[in-house]
Amino acid sequence: MNLNFSIEMMMFPHAVGVPEYKTPGAAAMDLYATESVMLYPGQSVLMPSGIAVRMPKNLCAEIMSRSGLGSREDVNVKMGVGLIDSDYRKEIFIPLINRSPEGEPVHIAAGDRVAQMRFTEVVHPEVEIAVAMDDNGRGGFGHTGGHKRVTIQGMGGDY
Q1: Which of 44, 51, 95, 120 has its CA 20 to 30 A from that of 88?
Q2: CATH number, residue 114
Q3: For residue 113, what pLDDT band results from cuts at 50, 70 and 90?
Q4: What does pTM read for this prediction?
């Protein structure tokens, strides 16, 4: 893996804050809301990020939820992760959804950190078409067995 690369970032006039790594050990850059919005339970919005990026062909960017926003407010990146290909050059949008089970709306203010962007190396393997696959005896989803639900003191629920 080549860890020496650079990207170019274009800031649109409506950008609020420059994406940055908040700590030396941060794996992803924080992205900011460019608009204020009240997000009701089950409602989603495509939030403009105010940025576009140009990156080497061997990279992609992943737009992911911020753990604090997701755990405190139940606001997440809608599909779990958004994938930005190296040849995409337009503004990046952040698909946010309010998954609050209590029915509480969440106010997102312009300038709030709402997602994070991580750069990942891309591999393009050569594909060979097979006529059959060996059965290794493994099942599908959940084939290794479930897990017991546990209660964590002070966390208010089963996990």
Answers
A1: 44
A2: 2.70.40.10
A3: very high
A4: 0.79
